[in-house]
Amino acid sequence: MLRELLENASLVEVVATFVAIALIFATILSLIFIIVGGITFILSAGNEEKIRKAVHTIRYSIIGLFVSFIAYFIVSFLARLLDIPFELNFSTIIDIMGQIFDSMK
Fold this sequence. Notes:
Blueprint: H1 2-8, H2 11-42, H3 48-81, H4 90-103
Helix pairs in contact: 2-3, 2-4
């Protein structure tokens, strides 16, 4: 997948694919940190410091996910504003994610 992209695609398509991969990575990482924060919260046993740490982990992972999606929308908006043919929608991201998971099998 990546070899074909790097050999045959234009610079805009390469950047769009890497933005999609970064967005997928940020989403997966955020979900992992939300799960870790939830487990830490459950296992805190009433310890205020552990509860605070778990809440901060969950809060910052959600903020990080929000920032990554805002960055995606800003890049998409600037591309439209500057007439750059940056075609990246969520169906493309889902297709790339499917290709990544298929290559892991």
